[in-house]
Amino acid sequence: MSILKTKTVKGGEKTEIEMDIFYLNQIPDAMEKMGWEMAPKLMRHWFNTKPAYTFTEEVKTKYVRGKAIDIPDERINDSIIKMEWAMKYKQPKDVMSVLINGWASSAGIEQLKIQLKKEGVNKELGYEKDIREIDTFSVVNSRRFGSKFDTIDDWYGAMGNSNMKVAVKGYVDKLNGKDVFVTEQIGIYLKDTYDFVGATEPLGIWSKNGILDKVSSVDYAALYATGSWMALWVKYNGYVPVINDSFRKWQKKYNEGGDFIVYSDVLWMNPLPQHKIINL
Fold first, then answer.
1. Cβ within 8 Å of residue 127, ≥6 positions away
2. Which pLDDT does position 66 carry in this prediction?
3. I need a surface site. Which of 72, 85, 125, 207 has the fewest CB within 10 A?
4. What are the sequence ranges of the domains in the chain?
5. Which has the closest alpha carbon to 191: 105, 252, 128, 260?
C-alpha cells in the first residue's frame, strides 16, 4: 500500500507530476540507511505480527499499569532492546544515574515494603527469571522520560517516551533486632509500548532515504498547508507525512502488524554502599 498520494495545481488546473512511490513497510529500510539499529528491528517485529492486532486505550493502560504477569507471551518482546545500546544515549543515561542514586527514597522504600508483603513468608525479591514477573513483584521505583523535542535518532525512533524501572534483588534479615532488607543487586530496565493508538499522532515525514529533520519538517508542513505542490516536488520529492492512522490502515488492508509491549534486558549492578541495608 502506497502512503504517498500526489496532486499538483498549476494555473488553476490539476497537473500530474511523477513522484517516487513510498510504501509504509519501507520505513525500516530507511531507518537503516540513516544508521539506526534498534528502531528498524522493532518496526519489523510489528510488521511481522500476523494476524493484525491493535491495542485499545484500555488494554494499553492495563499492560502498562496493571500486573505485567497478565500480559500474554505474544504481546511482548524482550529480546531486541539492550541496556548496553540504550546507554549510548544521553536521555536514558541521565535517568539511570538519577535512579541509581535515588531509588531508595521514602516512596521507593514504601514500594519495597509493598512488594515484600506480596511475598508472604518468603521475603525475597528479584530472583524471578521472566521479565514480567520482575516487573510485577520486584520493582520499587521508576521514571517516565522523553520529549517530542528530543533529537531524532535511533533512540527517538525506537523508544521515544519510555519508562525506566528499578528492581531489587535481595532478602529480609535482622540487624540489631530490627527488620532490614539486604540489597544484593539492583536491576535497571526499560519498558515501553509499541503501538499506534491515537489516529492523528504525527510520526515524521519519511521517504525511502530517511526522515526529515525538524527544521525541514516545518518547511514541508508550510508548503503543504499553502498548496505549494511544485515546491514540495522540487524540495521534498518522495517524502510523505506518516501518522498513526497510516499503520492502522495498513493493518486493515493486509491483516498484519501487531502492537506490543517492549522490554529491554535487565542491567544488574551492585547498589551504592548507602543502599546495601534498607531499614524497614
1. 169
2. 95
3. 72
4. 53-195+259-279, 199-254
5. 260
Q: What is the dihedral sign for C-alpha 48, 162, 206, 254?
A: positive
Secondary structure class of 80 (helix, strand, coil): coil
C-alpha cell at 189: 530496565
Does 214 have pLDDT greater than 50?
A: yes
Q: C-alpha cell of 39?
A: 528502531
Q: What is the strand order of the sheet 240-243 is part of?
A: 210-211, 202-207, 240-243
The answer to which of 108-112, 188-192, 204-208 has the lowest mean pLDDT is 204-208
How much is the pTM?
Answer: 0.89
- Amino acid identity of residue 197, one-letter, is V
C-alpha closest to that of 264 among 170, 158, 111:
158
Taking each helix axis from N to C terminus, what angle separates 214-225 and 229-236, rounded to the nearest 10 degrees?
160
Contact 205, 240 (CB under 8 A): yes
Single-letter code of the amino acid located at 241: P
Q: Which contacts of 67-74 are long-range, i.e. CB under 8 A and separated by 24 or more positions?
A: 67/136, 68/131, 68/132, 68/133, 68/135, 68/136, 69/130, 69/132, 69/133, 69/136, 71/132, 71/261, 74/49, 74/258
Handedness of CA 22, 25, 30, 33 (dihedral sign): negative
Confidence category of residue 6, pLDDT binned at 50, 70, 90: very low
Q: What is the DSSP letter of 74?
A: G
pLDDT in tens, 40-64: 999 999 999 999 999 999 999 999 9
Q: For 254-274, how does the pLDDT look when each residue is reduced to its tens digit (9 = 90+)? A: 999 999 999 999 999 999 999
Which of the four pLDDT bands, split at 50, 70 and 90, describes residue 229?
confident
